Amino acid sequence: MAADAITIARPYAEAVFAQADEGGKLDLWSETLSFLSVVVEDPALAPVIDNPLIDRAALTDLLLEISSGQIHEAAGNLIKLLVQNGRLPLVPEIKILFDALKADKERVLSVHVTSAFALKAVQEKLIANALKAKLGREITVTSEKNADLIGGVHIRAGDLVIDGSVRGKLQQLANELGI
To answer: Which of 56, 115, 121, 154 has a 20 to 30 A CA-CA distance from 16?
Structure first.
């Protein structure tokens, strides 16, 4: 995701979040933005969305017809605004930013754990509980296996990175020794 796309998408995400939060519809908007992201990223629609020769009113009508029954009136207004401003391709970035604002509001933090070996559910739960105690937030954990770590885990929680991997410790030792 390009930094300028994030910068352009941020005001839209913040406006949608403010409206959703005020109306108590954070989950509804999250689902709506997920749906719209899928529609916008559909390979069959990409040539239409990216084509400057397509009339914006026709594109708006097409998207509203595709989304009929799937979205609420305010989401239809968002589609109209994004098409009018030529910002429709930003929907996936708007969704990512919206979800981050929602998670912050709900005090939920998504954590990604990379381990040398596949983690069991009980191990993920232990990591989540430890991070919850440290960070004071609800934790959702996703994990992946990466044998290159040799052993241990690498945890990424937002800006916080905890590298408890053998590879990380060896790299740290090499740096200290100037190798």
So the answer is: 56
- Asked if residues 15 and 75 have their Cβ atoms less than 8 Å apart, the reply is no
| Same domain assignment for residues 41 and 77 | yes
- For 155, other C-beta atoms within 10 Å of its C-beta total 21
* Structural domain boundaries enclosing 167: 108-177
Q: Which two tokens stand for residue 83?
A: 């098409």
> In this structure, are 131 and 169 located in the same domain?
yes
Residues of 8-46 as b/e, b for ≥16 C-beta within 10 angstroms? ebeebbeebbeebeeeeebeebbebbebbbebbeeeebe
> Is 2 a residue whose pLDDT tops 70?
no
One domain, residues 130 and 74: no
Report the C-alpha gap between 67 and 70 in whole angstroms: 5
pLDDT band at 105 (very low <50, low <70, confident <90, very high): very high
Residue positions counted in the chain: 179
Is the domain of 98 the same as that of 128? Answer: no
Dihedral angle, C-alpha 148, 122, 27, 33, nearest 10 °: 20
Task: Record the pTM.
Answer: 0.73
Of the chain, the percentage scoring pLDDT greater than 70 comes to 98
Query: What CATH number does the domain containing 146 carry?
Result: 3.40.30
Of 103, 136, 157, the position where a domain reaches its end is 103
Q: How many domains does the chain have?
A: 2
